[in-house]
């Protein structure tokens, strides 16, 4: 689920998998014309897969094209790990995951 506020922040919740991502993508298409949010908050994302990374990369490319900064915060560790293993994290501006840590740190790659 996607919830926007008036402060330029969008919060995603629930699953962010291949089942939900196409609808999220369609609902975000107006951002290309009317402007992206400043912040994408993933604090309430319960599950995510590689399609979530694809969506985040697409949004990042829109931000780059518009010369805007897009902050992605509260990233689930599992998504950080997937991004690090696939070397996509660098494209999203995330730092590498500490694979020695077992903590579910939502700031692991921000």
TrEMBL record:
Gene3D superfamilies: STAS domain. Residues 10-82 form the MlaB-like STAS domain. InterPro entries: MlaB-like_STAS, STAS_dom_sf. SUPFAM superfamilies: SpoIIaa-like. This is STAS domain-containing protein. It comes from Wenzhouxiangella limi.
